[in-house]
UniProtKB/TrEMBL annotation:
The chain crosses the membrane at residues 12-36, 56-79, 100-120, 132-151, 191-214, 234-258. It is found in: Cell membrane. It comes from Desulfonema ishimotonii. This is Molybdate ABC transporter permease. PANTHER family: SULFATE TRANSPORT SYSTEM PERMEASE PROTEIN, SULFATE TRANSPORT SYSTEM PERMEASE PROTEIN CYST. The complex is composed of two ATP-binding proteins (CysA), two transmembrane proteins (CysT and CysW) and a solute-binding protein (CysP). One of its GO terms (molecular function) is ABC-type sulfate transporter activity. PROSITE patterns: ABC_TM1. The keyword Transmembrane helix applies. It is a multi-pass membrane protein.
Length: 265
């Protein structure tokens, strides 16, 4: 390797590093500006307000419920897409991934049309479940927004686990369910952790889907992103910025745990 080649490689490496650090610095400045603008007294006052405590409590309750539901469905769907070959598999995978590409507002509109005055909506209403402009709708909106991410993580996790270990277990007389329970799931614990954390963060941060399906009623269906939106509309920047800070902190913790789990999408 000649001297000129080495210089070209160093130049190429320096260019890539510059781009990486430049974009990272811009993001840090953008996020830091959110924390730099308000005064601590305003933040503390906003955190103690009845509206903020309601939004935070509702976000945690609905986010936790949605995350449990997401994982209950993402785990079997991810395993199915990873291990089984069947007709229509590509279609199922495409449809499951579709909400990732959808704007949240479009997904919310689809859910509003489905659970509104239709056969499906009336069927759920007979069971005592009304998802339109209710807190139950918040959970449904968060569920359908976060589910595709959890499915992708679980499928990727199962893809990395060698099927040979499951074959050995089956050859020793264990059923497929016992094999999944005692062999596959313990090996997938990092993926389970990552999918749970990312799902919770997506549920907490869901805005457009919640706004369309559950509405943005003050202290009725008001989760943290809705509180941010409503307070910007009212011109109450202290409350809006505090809502944004809480969401950033939740997202940072989620990404940190996700990186520690070392699972790729």
């Amino acid at each position: 390797m000649g001297f000129s080649t080495v210089r070209q490689i160093d130049g190429f490496r320096a260019c890539l590093l510059f781009i990486s650090f430049f974009i990272t610095a811009l993001l840090m400045l953008a996020i830091g500006s959110l924390f730099a603008v308000p005064e601590l007294t305003d933040i503390w006052k906003s955190l103690k307000s009845e509206e903020m405590r309601f939004a935070l409590r509702l976000s945690l309750i609905t986010g936790s419920a949605s995350t449990v539901l997401v994982m209950l469905f993402a785990l079997p769907i991810g395993y199915t897409l990873s291990r089984f070959e069947f007709r229509g598999k590509r279609l199922v995978k495409t449809i499951c991934d579709l909400p990732v590409a959808f704007p949240e507002l479009v997904l919310g509109l689809c859910l509003l049309m489905l659970f509104g005055n239709t056969f499906v909506g009336k069927l759920f209403q007979l069971m005592g479940l009304n998802f339109v402009f209710t807190r139950q709708g918040v959970v449904v909106a968060q569920f359908f927004t976060a589910l595709p991410y959890a499915i992708r993580i679980m499928k990727s996790t199962f893809d990395y686990i060698s099927p040979r270990l499951e074959f050995v277990s089956r050859s020793l007389g264990y059923t497929q369910f016992e094999t999944v329970r005692h062999v596959t799931l313990p090996l997938a614990k990092n993926g389970l952790t990552a999918a749970t954390v990312i799902s919770f963060a997506r549920c907490i941060g869901t805005f457009g889907t919640v706004l369309i399906l559950a509405g943005g009623s003050h202290m009725q269906t008001e989760v943290l992103p809705t509180a941010l939106y409503l307070n910007i509309s009212y011109g109450n920047m202290g409350m809006a910025l505090t809502s944004g800070m809480v969401l950033v902190v939740v997202s940072f913790i989620a990404i940190f745990i996700f990186e520690k789990a070392d699972v790729s999408l």
